[in-house]
Amino acid sequence: MGSKESCCFTGHRILPAGELPALRAALRREISNLAEAGVGRFLAGGARGFDMLAAQEVLWLREERYALELVLVLPCPEQADRWNARERQAYREMVQEADEVIYVSEVYTPDCMFRRNRKLVEESGSCICYLNRERGGTAYTVKYAEKLGLSIVNLAVPRPNSAAQEKTLFI
Predict the structure, then answer these.
(1) Where are the domains of the chain?
(2) Are 29 and 66 in contact (CB under 8 A)?
(3) What predicted TM-score, i.e. pTM, was given to this entire model?
(4) pLDDT tens sequence across 15-29
(5) I want to staple 104 with a disulfide (CB 3.0 to 4.6 A). Which of 20, 37, 115, 157 is the partner?
């Protein structure tokens, strides 16, 4: 298991638009609670949606109140190349403001996302997630975190028919 002073984030790229204010508040509360308990290093994978939202909250809390470190564990340098201009700009700003950027691969490979997710968990003692589906990268990452004994907080409320209520999150 990774450091007890580190926490990783994992979550879906698509989030319910109506939940964003409450999700931001919940992230801020959980990050603050961990900071008060001595966690100072937060790791995010840089993906659209929950990853970027969580990273932005770490940066906001770092600016406002706590001595926090944001570490981006990214799959490859071209992660955001196919995103729209607004998303790429938000991504560049996040990378510039991070305290450390780690690439698990120099170029895109079929397993670079998988390796990124494992590294996030292996470097951490706790995990804040947004998980409301049983399959996919987020589900795998949370299961891996459970297997390694990380403390996990899930900020999602599972809902039937949630796909119909979701919308792409642009941060």
Answers:
(1) 3-168
(2) no
(3) 0.89
(4) 988 889 999 999 999
(5) 115
